[in-house]
Amino acid sequence: MNRIVIMMQTCLPRLMYLLLVLPLMSLLPACDRNNDQQDDTSKDAITIQAWAHAGQAAERLVLKKQVEQFNQQTDDIDIELTFVPERDYNAQVQAAALAGDLPDILEFDGPYLYNYIWQQQLLPLETLLPAAVIDDLLPSIVVQGTYGQHLYSVGVFDSGLGLYARKSALSRINARIPQSAADAWRIAEFNNILLKLAQQDDDGAVLDLKLNYGGEWFTYGFSPVLQSAGADLIDRDSYQHSRGVLNSDAAIAALQYVQSWIQNGRVDPNLDDAAFVSGRVALSWVGHWEYSRYKQAWQDDLVILPLPDFGEGSRTGQGSWNWGITTRCAQPQAAAEFIRFLLQTDQVLAMSNVNGAVPGTRSAVQRSASYGEKGELHLFADQLLQGVAVPRPRTPAYPIITTAFQQAFQQIRNGANVKQALDKAATIIDQDIRDNQGYPFLTE
Amino acid sequence: MNHRRVLNSVLVYSLLPGMSLIFLIPVWMMLAGSFKADDLVLQHAGSLQGYFPASMSMQNYQDVFDRVPFLRYLLNSMLITSTIVIAGALVNSLAGYALARLRWPGRDWILLVIIALMIIPLEAIAVPLFYEVTLLGWRDTYLVQIVPFIANAFSIYLFYTFFLGLPREFEEAARIDGAGSWRIFFNIVAPNAKPVYAAVAILTFLTQWGSFLWPLMVTHSEEVRPLPLGIAAFYTLPPLQWGDIFAFGVMMVSPVLLVFIVFQRWFVAGVATTGVKG
Asked: In angstroms, rounded to a whole number, what is the distance separating the alpha carbons of residues B70 and B73?
């Protein structure tokens, strides 16, 4: 009996403490949320949860301010914003979807959009947003957000891809400066420019392809090469096969050009991500996000050009983060109010001004100092407005398409046989589509 | 013989600094980079400049605090990790003791199961575990990051092997004096097992401090997220802010180094007695 008493005296208090503390700790965040909810209830407001990617610091700050402003303006709707790290964002969305715990409003990156729609996680927006708001969106954003006749996502901004160049370097070799995508350098002209620039360069490396990036960049940055040559990542009529498209003769020839630039030493490996700003190269193949750094380095000597034309006209990439309303949302009209607020011209410009991306609406583009008619970045907006930009393949298979293409591109840049690399990628993609019974469209 | 021993020592001691440099250089480079402007970090990376801070600017550290709630992440990591370490030490040592010293039906089978569990990685059970904690309503809490990791097959096995080697005489003497199993454990066995407690504590601390996959799956609020998820916020569209990432890394690694330095003596003793290899 004594033993039991001693044991109770010595051990049980410690165990009890442990058993009490653990559940209490778990309640800490819940308490915070309950308090918030009580505050909200006192206002009789609808609480809308929103997840956004934790992008650059300035982006976060603007979005936080926009949420505060919206919450102050509207008495009946309160937005609860959660920032989720950009890296592995999709993994967290998938985990929340599995647990039935998605927020009301979700921001997501282009590559996963169609997969989310296919998983029936998003609501169509055309009945929730006024027609005037949708009409004002850049056509590229509407095309990107549309799947199976419905608009599921809208973006506050879009992206731009092109060639940054130093005017002085081009004038030394008497290269003409294209004024628009229609006027882009043909591939033979581009190869000639590379050769001439290399002849005047110490090490012959005159082009930066941002080979230091990796990942989605390879698909975003170099699928326009395929499309410009008349090929593509997948057959866009049926979205059922890549074979014969991704590994077509046109695709092989186009990527052989890219491989030849690398093998001939024209491409700077750019390990320090400073090839262009340091003046080692005269051309940099990259998106809008490098503008401010490049402008700071080269001021008026900087010029932005369309990507070269591989035979079927210059093409470029598009797509960025989108907003959608999840099927879990009980108050989609209230959620749409917030998205509508974000798409107001002032709000679009506020975001575009800090992240440097192309404003997502026509009215904001017109008012933008950088992207408007006389802006230095107008080419990027023009490419999105004129249909030069090609959206990512609108299929739930996109994650596997981009992974397969990235692997193929890695092999090609390292000197592998282009045809074999593309054959393999096409096989992987087609197998995935077969495994998923062709990703049938949603039933209406 | 003596000549050969000296030669061996010279060889070993001339190799050791080189070997240690391989491990120290990345840490040093992270420290140096944390004081540099973002664009200089990669520019200097391939040269000797990479190993020396260009200036002693604390801007990157300031940026970390501006960009993420670092202190909140730090407190979360400390709370989660220390709770797992303390509760794990208690639970796993009790289990190890019961397996090593007490006689009860099914003991050998349980031991076999525990040994088998050691080879199953978290990744293999992450999805069923995820469903389990979702059903329990534990997502996005501290609880979900702590409870599944308190009991640990490897820790139990370490305690088990250590207790097997502990002389039985102490316990027998205590039993003759009238002490029960609980009292023997807390008053006799545990005080003599400090090295293995230290080894288990450090190994658990290191594993949990860097835990990424599980918190990623089960949390989304900044209020409960640990440090490894905090650093993920810096991986955005290029160009990456490498100075900020390095500054975050320095502040994340420092507590680990501190814990290791404090417990180093016991850790080495624990490694020696339990046969743990890194």
From this structure: 5
CATH class of the domain comprising A44-155+320-385: alpha beta
From start to end of A275-398, where are the E strands? Answer: 283-287, 302-305, 322-325, 358-359
Q: How far is CA A260 from CA A225, A252, A264, A313, A426, in A?
A: 14, 12, 6, 21, 22
Of the candidates B144, B232, B239, the beta carbon closest to that of A88 is on: B232
CATH number, span A161-316+395-435: 3.40.190.10
Tell me if A44-155+320-385 shares its fold with A161-316+395-435.
yes
The token pair at A321 is 């983060």
* Domain range summary for chain A, segments of one domain joined by +: 44-155+320-385, 161-316+395-435
Buried/exposed code over B10-29 (b: 16+ C-beta within 10 A; e: otherwise): eeeeeeeeeeeeeeeeeeeb
Q: How far is B63 from chain A (nearest CA, A)?
A: 9
- Indicate which of A6, A26, A209 best probes the interface with B, i.e. most B CBs within 10 Å of its own CB: A26
Q: Residues with Cβ < 8 Å from A375, sequence gap 6 or more?
A: A368, A369, A381
Tell me: pLDDT of A41 over 70.
no
The residues spanned by each domain of chain B are 69-233
- Give tens-digit pLDDT for A74-105: 999 999 999 988 878 888 898 898 888 899 99
H-only helix segments in A239-330: 249-263, 291-298
Q: What is the pLDDT along chain B (278 residues), one digit of tens a residue?
A: 578 888 999 999 889 998 999 989 988 989 999 998 887 888 887 788 888 887 778 999 998 998 889 999 999 999 999 999 999 999 999 999 999 999 899 999 999 999 999 989 888 999 999 999 999 999 999 999 999 999 999 999 999 999 998 888 888 888 888 888 899 999 999 999 988 998 899 889 989 999 999 999 999 888 999 999 988 888 776 677 889 999 999 999 998 888 888 877 777 776 666 655 44
Over the stretch A349-369, which tens digit does the pLDDT of each residue have?
A: 999 999 999 999 999 999 999
Is A38's pLDDT higher than 50?
no
Q: With contacts defined as CB-CB under 8 Å, which chain A residues touch B227?
A: none
Given a contact cutoff of 8 angstroms between Cβ atoms, the answer to whether A356 and A362 are in contact is no
Q: State the pLDDT at residue A161.
A: 97
The fold adopted by the segment(s) B69-233 is MetI-like fold (1.10.3720)
Task: Report the residue from B186, B221, B238 with minimal CB separation from A82.
Answer: B221
**Are residues B239 and A290, on separate chains, in Cβ contact within 8 Å?**
yes
Q: Per-residue pLDDT for A263 more than 60?
A: yes
**Local structure of A325: helix, strand or coil:** strand
Smallest Cα–Cα separation from A158: which of A409, A373, A392?
A392
Chain B residues inside the 8 Å CB shell of A217: 238
Instruction: Name which of B46, B179, B233 is nearest A85 (Cβ-Cβ).
Output: B233
Contacts of A2 in chain B (CB under 8 A): 178
Q: Cβ contacts (< 8 Å) between B79 and chain A: which residues? A: 25
Residue A14 pLDDT greater than 70, yes or no: no
Residue type, B223: E
